[in-house]
Design brief:
By secondary structure, the protein is an all-alpha fold.
């Protein structure tokens, strides 16, 4: 039985994904992609979403659960480590394939059906840089390496909000513009709000005297609203880019 949180289902493998927070990370990718002046390439954006789902949704949360099972799942530690490692290996394969396509136009035959644009002949080094930094945080943050130095709110927001937004922009534009950095900083504030209020709710819910129980509902709803805001913004921007402005009046 998993520890009860507002979003838990009691199904270990679903709860392990931290669905609302994984949804926020994937939303940051979409938001960044939609801010590219030329518009997003949805094939590249989908591959970026797949990579972050495997890296954050699966691998990071598997490694995090190994450290004391904060969700209370019954999944064996060896299974968690194996699933996390396989997910990271898949990301490595995606990154290598992406590098080869960006730089040389080479696509594995198994993926030749993908509607990819013409290879730009550049951008592969940037892809490798993003992959290396995010892979570092998957291990350093989730497994609390280096004495837990990177397991704090600052690096959480940087790695799972700022960088995903910037990467969503980069993989479509193959450049980093000033407005993309400012956008990533701005939208990262949703992760700041979410983590700060979440800490507050957790401390109140863990109080053995239950003195704060009557006051948990409102801050918890604030967390839910922050998640909803991020996801709805991503959906809105995606619809705008896909369909253009839809006149109602």
């Amino acid at each position: 039985m998993t520890s009860k949180r507002w979003w838990t289902t009691g199904i270990d493998w679903i709860d392990l994904l931290y669905p609302p927070y994984t949804a926020m990370v994937l939303s940051y990718i979409v938001i960044g992609a939609c801010m590219v002046p030329e518009g997003p390439n949805w094939t590249l954006t989908t591959l970026a979403l797949l990579a972050y789902f495997l890296g954050v949704g699966v691998a990071a949360h598997c490694f995090d659960e190994v450290k004391g099972h904060p969700l209370g799942t019954k999944i064996n530690d060896k299974v968690l480590l194996a699933v996390g490692a396989i997910s990271m290996a898949l990301i490595g394969a995606l990154t290598l394939a992406g590098f080869l396509w960006l730089e040389y136009g080479w696509v594995p035959e198994a993926f030749s059906w993908l509607p990819l644009p013409e290879s730009p002949g550049r951008g592969g080094i940037g892809l490798l840089a993003f992959a290396a930094v995010e892979s570092f945080f998957v291990f350093a943050y989730s497994l609390e390496l280096f004495g837990g130095r990177f397991h704090n709110d600052f690096w959480f927001v940087f790695s799972w909000a700022f960088l995903p937004t910037l990467f969503g922009y980069y993989i479509n534009a193959l450049r980093i513009d000033l407005h993309a950095i400012l956008l990533a900083l701005a939208i990262s504030m949703t992760a700041v709000v979410e983590t700060r209020i979440n800490h507050w709710v957790k401390r109140m819910s863990e109080d053995p005297r239950r003195e704060y129980a009557p006051w948990i509902k409102e801050p918890q709803e604030a967390v839910q609203a922050t998640v909803a805001l991020t996801v709805l913004l991503a959906i809105t921007l995606a619809l705008w880019r896909l369909l253009g402005p839809i006149g109602l009046l």
